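Protocol step 4 of 5: obtain the predicted structure for the target chain.
Materials: sequence only (see below). No template structures provided, no constraints applied. The aim of this step is simply to have a reference model before the mutagenesis design in step 5. Sequence pasted as it appears in the construct record:
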Amino acid sequence: MSRRVVITGIGVRAPGGVGTAQFWDLLSSGRTATRDISFFDASKFRSRIAGEVDFDAEAEGLNPREIQRMDRATQFAVACTREAVTDSGLDLGRLDPHRIGVSLGSAVASATSLENEYLMMSDAGRKWQVGTDYLSPHMFDYLSPGVMPAEVAWTVGAEGPVTMVSDGCTSGLDSLGYAVQLIREGTVDTVITGATDTPISPIVVACFDAIKATTPRNDDPAHASRPFDGSRNGFVLAEGAAMFVLEEYTAAKRRGAHIYAEISGYATRCNAYHMTGLKKDGRELAEAIRNALDESRLDPTGIHYINAHGSGTKQNDRHETAAFKRSLGEHAYNVPISSIKSMVGHSLGAIGSIEIAACALALKHNVVPPTANLHTADPECDLDYVPITAREHKMDAILSVGSGFGGFQSAMVLRRPEAVAA
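Step 4 output (structure tokens):
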């Protein structure tokens, strides 16, 4: 059997609070953290709400040079990495740096800084020809996505494989999937992994406005994200990050580490169908789920909770419901399911990692986070989507799924290590 991989440290920066503890408090209480956009004047946009993070880089311990050099998304990743490493209790300085890797996911990378740089050089778009007089010396850091995991590597002294994973909204799951593979195959023993995105900028908001993917429910931001509800009309854009310390199981046990969960199964597929469209039968997502279950040596009845992608678009929610029925059969009607995007919004590539953090904490506390704002379910979404209030529920295995533009469909299984046969 290949080497087992466990989560021993978690760091989260998400809307509604700073740090993992505040993140879980928000989810378990069913509160929402979506609000009017405050980063810029959004009055001209169709959708003017978002899930913003109250992030203070200086309070996070970043010095002025780091703040100037790093894009906001990179700052998130570094802050989360520091929290995750502290949480793990792992002394990275005592490890062989060549046996430490980094795998970071992001959908839009440094889009915020790139847009700011363009606005500066073009005089807010008034100049068609731009020179380099006002070009930031850190432009390369913003232009090259690979700089983001490099910053994380420098933070922890990692000299093993350092990788950027960017495949849309499944990036946060797929970065962890790659990290698991590195440990299983023996390339490294420890990986700092997760995802980050800070897409709340005019260009990104305009892009989603153009395809009407985000909700125009601007009069009630706190209740605008409504996955699986019959009145839903799009997702709420958000920002955030989550980072993890992954270790080989026996090494973690040997040092007496607290283990949140074992990542026992992962699979990803592509529908090769449409950039934004989804087939109604959910076949590719169902195939990813089945493969993740097979890798975990679980049958469908072994799953005790599903963290849904649950974006709040009618197309996705119905596609996902069909995929659960196709892959889990009758058990799909018996397992509790929920979407935390109802509370923290959709942070694109980061959300998959943020949701894995939620799953690890749900496993720890035996509590299913609710789907906030779910009052009247869509008749086509007829599964147990845990509305409004968190539910105490004994769990040994959790399935988390993601769906992204480009047709990407990913699934990951988390289990209690003691529930897994050696």
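Step 4 remarks: The chain has two domains: 5-254, 265-416. The domain at 5-254 is CATH 3.40.47.10 (Peroxisomal Thiolase; Chain A, domain 1).
Proceed to step 5.
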